[in-house]
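lol ok so funny story. i was supposed to be doing the assay writeup but got distracted and ended up predicting the structure for this chain instead. priorities right. anyway since i did it might as well share w the group, maybe its usefull for someone
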Amino acid sequence: MSLLITSSSQGVDETNQVGIAQPQQYKNHLKNSLMIPPGSEIAVQSVKIQRNPMIDAGAQMVGNFWFGERLARSGSLAESVGYIIPTTNRIGRSLGVEDFADQYVKTLKEAYSFHPEINSNARTMSVSTTAQGAFVGFDYSIPQNGTYAASLLPDEDTTVSTLGQVARDAVEQGYTDKILWDGSQLEIDTESGQAVYGQLLPRGAEGGPISLHNGSLTFRDIDSTQKFTVGLARPMIFGHNGAAGEYQDPMNVFKGLQDGGIGESGQDYYDYAAEVDDDGFLRLYHAVPAVMGSSEAEVVGADNDSFGPAGEAGRLEMKEIHYYQKAAGTFVADNSANSDFATGTPIVWSTNASSITFKVMGETVSILLGETGKLTSKMICTAKSVTYQTKNQVPKPLAQTAWKMYPTFTLVEDGDTIDIEAYHCRTQATLWNNQPENSWISRSTADVHLGNGSAVDHDALIVGPVTPLPAWNNAFFWSLSIDTRDMFQPYVALTASPTVPIQGGIGRTPLGYTSFLLDTYENIFITGSSEIYMDKAIQQWQPNNAQQLGFEGFAVSPLAGMGGGGAGAGASFVSAQRPSLMSKHSTFIRVPTFTHQTFNCVTGNPSKILYQVPRFDNAGTETGALYFQNPDKTYIDLNNTDELRITDLDVQFVRKDETFVSDLTGSSEVVFHIRKKA
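and the output, tada:
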């Protein structure tokens, strides 16, 4: 029998060290060869290591976020306009508390940059200690902007994306249909004679998404005889179609079919739109679900044109907002509480109309009309009084799918123009990585090209064979699950029982602002399994980082400890308890020198692992200097039919995936016991 004493730290008088010794990976050189007799086996006798107190942020750590109303314990996602904000763990290793805070704050920055009213450039995460310097947790700060955005018209070099199948068909036929932007005016240049559907996509310092805090977009100087569509829509960015240098707009951000839209083609999609067509009336539209009914004959409702064929549920369509509704009935109401134009008929555009303004205040979208010669605008429609009766008569609540919206338009006749007078938007001053591709809807539905900060050269990103960032895995239908919730459904009832809803029975009055802050909106960390905030079927994104962030025992960060600090509910809060300074990862000892063989089912490959190091040492501690005496040794066959001659001995500390551990320091010592098999 033989004892082999190994160490990562040796004096020059004791050994000829080869290479650079590290506590997790070292080599000992024997001056005299070790002769191991045939038919021997080996086991670990004892281990001595120095383990740093670290936060375990290995690749398996998952965490999600939420910005919106805190859901009641008896509540559900169906009652909200929100969804989880997933994150990708880019740390993948154990770190000290300060290094972990420095790295994880980047995750916070990315997650909360999806909402324009979070100052994602100003978020912080700091280490909290006692007066004696003992670590007690983390302090988090994720402030809202709390101020109105200034009007900023994007410069003339700003990208104007032409969208939709009609535009692609024109390109294939050799036409260069486009919409020109000179910094204040849009103009259609159509060689094919077809209408052009487009979107203005400012980024970086040139502009960004419309502010959701009293943000407004005003279209002006539209000819009284001109057909047009204007409005706001989620970013229809260029997604990658798999071929180098070729891109296409992902219409799947609306999950719409080739029909069910508006505009000349009947294929144009907006979140909110105003349109003047051949009849000269000003009509309003929003994207809402197709009616989920078995057939028109079996259901009743206020809007007969809402009914789609049986089996067409689960998609969106552009539906008219009946702002002009005057008569009251079972399914409709006098809309005078929401509109200055509840006259029974739509506005005639050619009669004194001079501008259209889209205004966003939290979840509330209002559309206003400017009249020739008048300084003040009139309210075409807003969501002030919302019931199931008025759902078709007011703009839908703004949901997470439309957190970032951009000016969108359809121009029809060659040479038609529309001016943009004002555009109150957020820029890179408060938005980290300010580009349309960096949005919740884009990341969930398309492969995108993202820069690494606010100053993004988009053109450089999409020229040539560039590898896009893939969409969040299995997230493609997340947006549809939001946009088809009951609150967005038109009210539909059985013919036999008109007051019993099949769908659309839930109405939501959109939330606004109070004292410059979003009503009841909180920054919430989802740190464990919570069926209230996310479906347990979403396996890949189930969170497990409660111990690392200091919320062990909580699926979501608790209300206790939340503070406004003048920057919004939940803008600043602290860990509920001291984060765990231990490694949840198992540590194994691997010795590639010997002829034994084990099998690692995690990697699916043969292995040289000999021993699993316990989490706690013989004294019950898990960090600092640790000593493990192995009283019940497991011997592994060396499979040597002949004598082995050993001159060098490699010792490695690894994870279950056979990568080296990162939480060791100082000197490591391992004693092996070799004996002849019984």
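The first strand starts at residue 2 and ends at 7. The chain has six helices and 41 strands.
back to the writeup now i swear
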